[in-house]
């Protein structure tokens, strides 16, 4: 059986979810998966990006080194992990715009039984991380995908805040993670490995 193919799709304005995506890639590669880390297109005006030095620096950093996701990446993948910041308890418009283009794949059954999981960030401990992850899972249910939430399947989840829906982080005004960074890294890698394990089960069943 071929290795699981994982697409890690993220949106980030200053780099937090890019870091989560990189950790997820490390965990998935340790589980022998074939991995693509992909960003969704930026929709914000350049003038707004330029007004925030951290945002501007991040956009320039990934402009060349991180490919932009396409619908063919979703079709290619056996498993998908999405990582986003929260916007008023929901996913950012950049991710929503991309997901709204998946109608053709959905209509043709191309997203059925994809194994999916999600991660999120916010500036407050109760700033919408869980609601954001659950909003992504609502979309996945419509796809007919299989949600691979971490639950409480490993002790590392408690060290990272105990979110059973997906790893989530709190970021302060300077862009630094409030939680124990090593604990977050361990939780992200566990979530990625669990996603790969479930995707392997699905591949074998098919």
TrEMBL record:
It holds the Pfam family FMN_red. Residues 6-189 form the Flavodoxin-like domain. It comes from the Bacteria. InterPro entries: Flavodoxin/NO_synth (IPR008254), Flavoprotein-like_sf (IPR029039), Flavoprotein_WrbA-like (IPR010089), FMN_Rdtase-like_dom (IPR005025). Belongs to the WrbA family. This is NAD(P)H dehydrogenase (Quinone).
């Amino acid at each position: 059986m071929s290795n699981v193919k994982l697409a890690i799709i993220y949106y980030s304005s200053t780099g937090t979810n890019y870091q989560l995506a990189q950790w997820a890639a490390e965990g998935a590669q340790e589980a022998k998966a074939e991995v693509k880390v992909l960003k969704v297109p930026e929709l914000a005006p350049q003038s707004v990006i330029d007004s925030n030095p951290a945002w501007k620096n991040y956009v320039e950093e990934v402009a060349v080194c991180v490919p932009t996701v396409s619908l063919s990446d979703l079709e290619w993948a056996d498993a998908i992990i999405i990582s986003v910041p929260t916007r008023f308890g929901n996913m950012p418009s950049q991710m929503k715009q991309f997901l709204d283009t998946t109608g053709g794949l959905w209509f043709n059954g191309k997203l059925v039984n994809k194994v999916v999981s999600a991660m999120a960030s916010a500036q407050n401990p109760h700033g919408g991380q869980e609601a954001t992850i659950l909003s992504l899972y609502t979309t996945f249910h419509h796809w007919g995908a299989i949600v691979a939430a971490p639950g409480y399947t490993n002790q590392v989840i408690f060290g990272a805040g105990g979110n059973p829906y997906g790893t989530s982080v709190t970021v302060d005004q300077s862009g630094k993670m409030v939680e124990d960074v090593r604990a977050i890294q361990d939780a992200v890698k566990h979530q990625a490995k669990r996603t790969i394990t479930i995707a392997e089960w699905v591949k074998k069943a098919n």
